[in-house]
Specification:
Layout lengths: L3 E2 L9 E5 L16 E5 L4 E5 L4 E6 L5 E6 L3 E9 L8 E8 L4 E6 L5 E6 L1 H4 L12 E9 L9 E13 L2 E12 L4 E7 L1 E8 L5 E9 L7 E5 L5 E5 L9 E7 L2 E6 L4 E5 L5 E6 L4 E3 L2 E13 L2 E11 L14 E5 L5 E6 L8 E3 L2 E6 L12 E6 L5 E5 L3 E8 L2 E7 L1 E2 L6 E2 L3 E6 L2
Parallel strand pairs: 1-27
Antiparallel strand pairs: 2-36, 3-4, 4-5, 5-6, 7-8, 8-9, 9-10, 11-12, 12-13, 13-14, 15-16, 16-17, 17-18, 19-20, 20-21, 21-22, 23-24, 24-25, 25-26, 26-27, 28-29, 29-30, 30-31, 32-33, 33-36, 34-35
Length: 435
């Protein structure tokens, strides 16, 4: 690496905050996604989604409530788009659900009135047991522009939904990726028996990348690229590793796609057709005190010839329990267009979801469950080119973040480590403004 830093970023940020009510504290290990936040209207509107289904839109400056609604499921993902010429460019907020229906629903950004709803459980099936992991789950949303220039509504929404079931030793995923028009009509679907984890759209709105992190059935490739107008398959790529772990994230940059590989714990930059331009070791198997340790590269972000990857928790080969730590766990590493290292730094805790706007990366950092150090609870941000950034510390854990137009928003959730009995933090929205 050209530059490595294990010190905390130097700048802080004044945040406005407002409580979000009650939620069960997280425990030592990170929990599933229970909250969502999105910044819309060029940074003027902040929308939160809560585990009980409450969705609330607030003014970004005052945090005054503009509207609140009840989504049919747990509200775990939010996106927005402008509806297009036929609706005078009015903005729409879309909410992804995890629950009985796996609902995708669109709401008027100004009023909260529901414009349409689609239940993905009609396609992927309903939960076979009453556990969170089995619920239909809209895991990703992506918005873009219709490539059909004759369309009245130019906005297009893409959503990936999945459902898991297990019967004894038999495990199965069912999933569908959707292309929705602005009015909620389905343009096309792409169905597999694998587990999607990420979507990304190229700058022209012509290609959609789908990352699959678990491939247990007939679908046996980690990355799929579709033509957006028709949903036709353009090409696929896979790390070629044994087992069902494949891709953690994918991010377009021009005609390139950055991919974080769960299969071999490396980062890749792919060109057209999936040609491998370069790959880098991120958290590959490493011997520490007689154990073979690794960590998953969970996030990738590419912009203007630079790529960043973020790694997660340490695991041991053959066991999920270890007292040791992989040297590259919980780190962000950035590379140039040739795969040469620019900088890397510690994020210190588990990053549920990486937010980005241009060259700014925002990482909501939850607990490091092997260390259980409350100092890891923070919102951290980095410049993609230089690594410069800052930090806002939370008493609880930061589990979701969004950034747009100089406005940054994050969700804090309370946490109670199993071995000290203290509940830290609260369920709250934190909002700040970059200069």
């Amino acid at each position: 690496m050209a530059e490595t830093a294990d010190t905390e970023p130097g700048r802080s940020l004044a945040c406005r905050s407002i409580p979000l009510g009650e939620i069960e504290p997280a425990r030592s290990r990170h929990m599933w996604t229970r909250s969502a936040v999105h910044v819309a209207a060029d940074g003027d509107l902040v929308v939160t989604g809560e585990w009980d289904g409450t969705v609330t839109a607030r003014d970004a400056d005052s945090l005054e409530e503009r509207w609140t609604i009840d989504h049919p499921d747990h509200a775990v993902g939010i996106a927005s788009f402008e509806a297009g010429a036929s609706d005078d460019g009015e903005e729409t907020v879309v909410v992804a659900g995890r629950g009985d229906s796996g609902a995708v629903a669109a709401y008027d950004a100004a009023t909260g009135d529901r414009r349409w709803r689609y239940d993905t459980a009609d396609d992927i099936g309903t939960a076979v047991t009453d556990t969170v992991f089995n619920l239909p789950y809209v895991v990703a949303l992506e918005t873009g522009t219709d490539t059909d220039t004759d369309a009245d509504d130019t906005a297009r929404l893409y959503a990936a939904a999945r459902r898991y079931e297990r019967d004894g030793e038999t495990r199965r995923w069912d999933s569908t990726v959707y292309a929705f028009d602005a009015d909620g009509s389905v343009r096309w679907t792409y169905e597999t028996d694998a587990s999607p984890i990420a979507l990304d759209l190229d700058a022209d709105g012509e290609r959609l990348a789908i990352g699959y992190n678990r491939c247990l059935g007939d679908h046996d490739t980690g990355l799929v690229v579709l033509e957006t107008e028709s949903g036709n398959l353009e090409w696929t790529w896979d790390p070629g590793t044994e087992g069902d772990r494949r891709v953690g994230d994918a991010s377009f940059d021009g005609d390139s796609i950055a991919v974080s590989s769960h299969g071999d714990k490396r980062g890749y930059l792919l060109g057209p057709g999936g040609a491998e331009r370069w790959c880098v070791d991120l958290a590959v198997g490493t011997d520490v005190d007689g154990e073979r340790l690794y960590a998953y590269p969970n996030h990738a972000y590419a912009n203007d010839g630079r790529v960043a990857f973020v790694t997660g928790n340490t695991y041991a080969v053959g066991s999920r329990e270890t007292e040791n730590r992989h040297p590259n766990e919980h780190r962000v590493a950035a590379f140039d267009a040739d795969g040469d290292g620019l900088w890397d730094d510690a994020v210190r805790g588990f990053v549920h979801g990486l937010a980005a706007d241009g060259d700014r990366l925002v990482a909501p950092c939850a607990q490091n469950f092997r260390v259980r150090d409350p100092d890891t609870h923070a919102l951290r941000w980095f410049d993609l080119e230089s690594g410069a950034g800052g930090v806002v510390r939370f008493d609880g854990i930061a589990t979701a973040a969004a950034v747009e137009g100089g406005t940054v928003a994050a969700i804090e959730e309370p946490v109670a480590y199993h071995d000290d009995g203290e509940t830290r933090g609260e369920y709250a929205l934190r909002v700040g403004s970059f200069e």
